[in-house]
Structures are given as structure tokens and as C-alpha cells.
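Render Hook-length control protein FliK in 3D.
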Amino acid sequence: MKIDGFAAQQLFQIQNKAAVEGLNVGELIQGRVLAMENGMLLLRLLDGSSLTAKVPEGFDLLPGTLLTLQIGETAGDQITARIVDSDAPPRQESAAENTLSQIARQLQTFGAKATGDMVSKVLSLLENHPGLDMEKAAFLTANGMESDPAMLATALKLANREFNLAGNLQALSRSLAESLSAADRADVEELLRTLMFRMEMAQAVRELAGRLADVHNGVSREDLALGGGIKLLLTRELLNALEGSLNAYEPLDTEKLFEVLQKALSNLKASKAMPGGGLNIPDEQLKEILHDFIRTTEGIRLKTAEMFRQEKPDVQKILESVFEKAYTRIEDDGASSIDLNDKLETLKEILQLASESARLAGERGSHAIRPVVQELTDALRFFSQVNTYHVFMHIPLVIREQQTIGELYIMKRKPGKGRINPKQFTLFISLHTQNLGLVETFLNASHGCLTIHFRVESQELADFVRAHHKELYEALGKKGYKLAEMKCRVLESEPVNLVSAGKITESVLGMNARFDLRI
């Protein structure tokens, strides 16, 4: 199909100059369309390289279309080109081109630009790992993990529900208890006492920062979006100021500690880093808060010392107190508040403890500890490297006193900045329950009205859920929500995983909106 007479409408701006390096004005290049989204064209050239170009508004081409482009004059520093010929793809090439187009769309789903280089990385993953599907390969590439074998293995474990953070923590706790119980007492005390004091102090500093943030703001942190940021800033500054000033063995020098804290906070009173132009707390109120913190600090020192007064400390009990901080506890009146930074730091402390314990353990103990430490370390690195979301964290749960273990993922989409609006959000929840089996919940809130779709494992369970819609309606009403629609159907496909949750949530809810949070 020859195209003439529309040069102005056909003028493209070529983005990657390397693809046309060495070509002169008037020369021709050919390639097939891989994808075209948001005014950007991705073209696979016949020599195997790729080209991206900005196209005029309203211009459209089908994936697989063969284009002949003529290099035009530069506009400023931008190389231009126009279409001189276009043809539909041959039948024998349509399948391959369709695959490339699908890869481009998958990358765009995860917020990545579907450049030729990114598409090639996905193709390479698929070729080198036959068991990997396109969706997971695109997820890894979008997050820059395509060349990291450990991240590939971790992603597959998470997506296939083969990774169990709670189970790993339990196994690690048992191995540490066995190894440390047989180790030298002095070494064990130095390791555990120092760790417990450091962890308890970190928690006390976070609570101090929260109290200071409340007084500075004059309102509850839950009602002020800046509260969380101020708390993080205060926590960081206070921890830095206290470093080297405290340890688990020496008696507390209250005057010196007060001076250290007061100096750190005085610097923040005029700091540009503080929202609002500095820390705004009256001096007398600040003194009262700091003296309360100093009393708390002395209590922590005495508490940790008490655990090691007996000749043979209860290592298992001490470890339980350490590992418990990694869990979020769920009771009948709801869940305790979740501080993701707190949980992440706790897990890092536990891994540091395990690494140091492996040196004290014999060959057998070290052999039991190191594989679990490696898997947990890879998981934490994976969570920290996911860049398509603001937050991606895996948190173990303890539900009531039955020691039922659940696992929680929180994944907040990157385009949405700030806090999630409690009246306007989309949510996916997946729970393995003792009596109902797997229950998947898809929920959308709009101006306080909820649409909820459940997926369960049998028709009997679906009937049971529908029969209890009144109780759900009333429970949501007490939380300030109105149940506008509820559906329940039998789960007929594979359970949702961390990669597919966004797409399936949209499909089930029948909406064209990405979810804000996954649990």
C-alpha cells in the first residue's frame, strides 16, 4: 500500500538515535510494528535492532504491520522520519509478531516502557527458562531482575506460593535455639543481650518519635498525612544521635543522655528538613517527653540484664521474644498497627543474629541455619528491589491464641502518591482459612460504598458466604462503609499470585482501574 500526500501527518520523531546512526536524509529503513501506546511506536527493524519513535496524535497502526520509513531533516537535535510504504504482515510471521506485541503490553501493565531492549530481555528470559511464563518474565524485567538468578528463583517461589516467611522464621528460631543452647554462655550473652537491648531501644525511639510528631502537629498522626514522614525523620535523627551513647551493660548516665537528645532535637527546631520550617514543641513539654524516654531506657536496660542473671539463661524464651517482633498479631478486636519499616528492621536484625549464631554453632548447626538465612535474605532483597510499587512487603501473622499463621503482602501501586484514601481504593485479599479453605476477596470502595466479589473452593462454601451477607453488611456499617454489592462464585482457575493480581482484580470487578493494595 503506497502512501503519498500526508507528509505532515506522518512525521515521526525518532527517540533512539543509535538505531539510525550512519543514515543520511532520504535513506530508507524497514521494520515491523511491535506495539503503539500513548503516542509512542515500537518498531522491530529487519536487522534485529529496534526503534522507538513519537508519532502524531491520532495516528494508529496494527501490531505486525511492515513499515518503510524515509529519514527526514533534523528538527533541532531530533531526527525525523516519515512513512513511504506500509503492508500487512505475512501470515507465517504473525504469530511471532503477536508474541512481541503481547510482551510489550505485559511490560506496560507493570509500568515499564516497552522498548526494544526491554522486549529482548523478556524474550531472553523465556528462552533460557522454559518453565517461566510471559507474565512473570515481564514482571522480572520491569523490576530490573532479569539477570539475577536469586531474584528469579524468589519470584517463582512467591508466585507459585512456595515461599513461606512464617515457616522459615519458625525453622530458624528452632535451629538457633538448639545451636545457642550448646554454645559458650559468655558468647551467647554478648550476642543476645546486645541484640535485645538494641531492638527494644529502637522500638522505644520510634515511640518517642511518634509522640514528638503528635505534639509537633497538634493532631493525631492518623489525621495528618505528614505525620508518618515526620516520625520517620525524627526516628532517623534520634537513632543517629544515640549511636554509641548507650549499651546494654553500663549504667545510664541520665544527664549525658538528656544533653544528647536535647542537642539533636534543637538542631531540628531550625532544620529545613522538617515540614513547616522546624520542630515546633514548647521547651517544657519537650523536657517532660525526654525524661519519660530516659526512664523507659533505664527500664529496658534492667529488663535485658534480668534475663541473664541466672547461670543458664532461657535461650528459647529470649529468642521467642525477639522473633515475636517480626509478627503482626490479630485478635478478636482487630490487628495491631503495622509499621513496615519496623518489621523490615526486625527481620534484618534476626538475619544478623542468625549469621552471627552460625559462627558460634558447630558444623551441623551452621548447616541447618545458613540455607534458611539465604532464602530469607533473598526474599528481603526481592521486596526492596521491586520498583513498580511504592511498598512491597511480606509480613507473617499470628491469629488469636491458636498460633494460626497467615501471611500478608502489602503492595501499593507506584503512580499513586501519598496515603491511600480510605473511602476510595481497590483491594485484593487472599487467605488460607482453617474451615473455609482458600478465600479470595476482590473489593472496591468508592465514596464509602463497597463492591465485594468472593471466590471460594466449592459451591457449598459459596452458598454459605451468600447466606451471611447480612452479617457482613452490618460489620462493614460499623466501620463506616456501605455494602453496595456482594457476589460469590466458585474458584475455577489457578489462585491469584503476586504477578497476576492486578489483571485479575480488574477482570473480576469489571473495572479499568489498577488496584491500590494487595493483601
